[in-house]
Design a protein that fits this description.
By secondary structure, the protein is of the alpha/beta class. It folds into two domains: 2-76, no CATH class; 98-350, Muramoyl-pentapeptide Carboxypeptidase, domain 2 (2-Layer Sandwich). 35% of the residues lie in helices and 13% in strands. The strands form six sheets. A four-stranded mixed sheet has the order 10-15-13-14. It is globular. Bound molecules: zinc ion.
Length: 375
């Protein structure tokens, strides 16, 4: 049983898992309004009906196992722990990934592309399984922003996202007292899965923004590749560090969440906890702010599918409410705080929408040579 409103583990994971189970008795049940831990009367009644009282114990054991597998699968897309790596650290991780992955892994094919695919802008597929054509790059410097980690070449995005960032940066000093954006990873030139970091950021609609306010001088390329962002979380992840997490951080997150194009904002659970504590009575905007692992040095902004991208697969909207109650509490449990590590799985082009294969087949020497060699 899997709730469609589960924003920790996508319900599609259960379908994929159901597909792979060999038992003839495998049944996948989707709960229309169920969240990460379905516990409403009707969900519990359904559990009882489907598994029966005598078999309840077995069912619970199975669901604990399933939960473990789902958590494991969810963590495959969680690899943002290295978002703070310096340019040099990231380059060595990238080389290591290329050495370990099969040459036709989608991470390798998309990771080697250094230019965007021509054509009209299209976000193709989902945030975790997709690609991007017609990308444009955010300029390294603007009036109120600076692009960080330039050596990664990940400042490419759907033009709707790039325009959004330029607009947002301009209004933040006035609206939130935030001097400007230090912009982290957006996407690769053709989107797609990355060799390092991120499970998402594949269709040019996700962007990481540092939790460090922009300094009032232009950082050199070496500084942008080498300095670290500010960790605003303390107490072993249980709360924010009030000496570095300021009221301006709250105003910044609120301003971003209120933007109509924004689909979700991912932050560390401790940041969400602080927002819940300090937010005023009008808190509908908080629904979009979702806890996720990491995100203590940066927050992650995700836009909805742009109207022209017909192959873009968005997410179900976050459940209504401020997300502050029981569902936030789970993030401070042992299970959430110390998840078992899981290896990253190589993706093949077949795991992405068919249109994505055409993007890396475009005539750039390396990709063609590689494809020839594989055949
Ligand atoms: Zn991110």
């Amino acid at each position: 049983m899997h709730g469609i409103c589960d924003d920790a583990v996508p319900w599609q994971t259960s379908l994929a898992l159901g597909e792979r189970l060999e038992s003839r008795n495998a049944v996948v049940i989707l709960l229309k309004y169920g969240d990460h831990r379905p516990s409403s009367e009707s969900d519990l009644a359904r559990l009882g009906r489907n598994f029966g009282r005598t078999r309840m114990r077995v069912a619970v054991i199975k669901s604990i196992f399933l939960c473990g597998v789902l958590t494991l699968l969810a963590h495959l897309g969680r690899g943002e722990a290295s978002a703070q790596d310096t340019g040099a650290e990231e380059a060595s991780r990238r080389a290591m990934a290329i050495a370990q992955l099969p040459p036709d892994a989608a991470q390798v094919l998309f990771g080697r592309e250094s230019t965007p695919a021509a054509g009209p802008p299209q976000a193709i597929g989902s945030y975790e399984r997709g690609c991007l054509s017609g990308a444009i790059a955010l300029r390294a410097d603007g009036p109120n922003w600076q692009v960080m980690r330039p050596s990664r070449n990940r400042a490419w995005g759907h033009p709707v996202l790039i325009a959004f960032l330029e607009r947002l940066a301009q209004k933040l000093p006035g609206e939130a007292g935030w001097p400007g954006l230090l912009v982290g990873d957006i996407a690769q030139p053709r989107g797609g899965p990355m060799l390092t970091g991120h499970g998402s950021h594949q269709i040019g609609l996700d962007v990481d923004i540092w939790l460090t306010p922009m300094p009032n001088r232009r950082l050199s390329p070496a500084e942008r590749d080498g300095i670290s962002a500010t960790d605003v979380v303390a107490g072993e992840g249980m709360d924010i560090d009030p000496t570095v997490c300021t009221p301006q951080h709250r105003l910044l997150l609120e301003a971003v969440a209120r933007e109509p194009l924004v689909e979700r904002v991912f932050v560390n659970a401790a940041i969400k906890r602080a927002l819940c504590r300090e937010g005023g009575p009008e808190r509908a905007w908080m629904a979009k702010i979702r806890p996720w692992w990491g995100h203590n040095y940066h927050f992650h902004v995700r836009l909805s599918c742009p109207s022209g991208s017909r192959q873009c697969r968005g997410q179900t909207p976050p459940p209504p409410g401020d997300g502050c109650g029981k569902e936030l509490d789970w993030w401070f449990t042992e299970e959430a705080r110390h998840p078992r590590p899981s290896p990253r799985k190589p993706l093949r082009l077949g795991n992405l929408p068919p249109a994505c294969a055409a993007l890396v087949a475009a005539p750039t020497g390396q990709a063609l040579q590689l494809r020839g060699a594989a055949q």
